[in-house]
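Predict the 3D structure for this chain.
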Amino acid sequence: MVTRTTPRAPQDRHPRAKEQTVPRFMDFHEDLKLPEDAIAQIADDTRHARADQFGVTQVELYHNADGAVYCLLDGPDEDAIRRHHAALGVPCGDVHQVDSLT
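Done. Predicted structure below.
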């Protein structure tokens, strides 16, 4: 089971989808067991759409108790996404630019 960090009302599921001009990326982390305080901080940053020093904003994060983590992020490019993860001390494997259906 994958858990969302930021529960939203149905009408708020894609608050930035229509106005999005920054590329969106998704990456996967295997066996990344996030501590509860890290999840809480990521959830707070996501709710408030805070960008980091690389211009990366966490859109969503999905995780489960087995350590599977999917990050959905807005950022200027793949390099910024990788620098975002490196600054957090999180290894970053494949990064994919993605588009939304909505």
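The chain has a mean pLDDT of 83.
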